[in-house]
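Re: that backbone. Tokens:
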């Protein structure tokens, strides 16, 4: 089962709360094609309360069975990487748009689609070129129902003498 793992650096940003009752929420804003030599949780900048935080490096795993989804993502106007956070911890990083959409359904997680860097686009495109096998479309053909003595299924339309009240 072919797969490839890319290591990406994850950058998030948090704004000061809008009210006294609110708190800071980290939102992913970028992925770095090469992880930075910083510790996870390092504040990269703090401008008027808006903090940019490096969340560390994380694995982006490419699977051969999802290459059709990667192709769809690469063909979009803005190819993206979906980053899912549990608080300040990176939960998952994926280039699969369907997996990203599924993650966004969890209200406890923060999920953002951030721009895919050109180096990551090239790596994903190379993986797709090496492992994509298109599935041929086969239209199902209906089989006519056979009503014979050997057929254990009941007929769709019962004869008048076979109906419930006819006995």
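Recovered sequence:
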């Amino acid at each position: 089962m072919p797969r490839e793992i890319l290591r990406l650096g994850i950058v998030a940003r948090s704004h000061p709360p809008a009210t006294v009752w609110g708190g800071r929420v980290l939102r992913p804003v970028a992925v770095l094609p090469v992880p930075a030599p910083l510790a996870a949780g390092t504040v990269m900048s703090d401008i008027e309360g808006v903090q940019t935080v490096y969340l560390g490096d994380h694995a982006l795993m490419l699977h051969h069975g999802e290459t059709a989804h990667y192709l769809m993502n690469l063909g979009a106007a803005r190819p993206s990487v979906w980053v899912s956070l549990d608080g300040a911890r990176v939960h998952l990083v994926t280039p699969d748009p369907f997996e990203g959409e599924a993650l966004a359904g969890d209200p406890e997680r923060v999920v953002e689609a951030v721009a895919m860097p050109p180096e990551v686009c090239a790596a994903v495109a190379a993986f797709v070129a090496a492992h994509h096998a298109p599935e041929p479309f086969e239209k199902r053909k209906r089989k006519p129902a056979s009503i014979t003595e050997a057929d254990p299924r009941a007929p769709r339309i019962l004869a008048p003498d076979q109906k419930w009240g006819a006995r």
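DSSP finds three helices and seven strands in the chain. Strands lie at 3-14, 27-32, 42-47, 50-63, 80-86, 89-94, 110-115.
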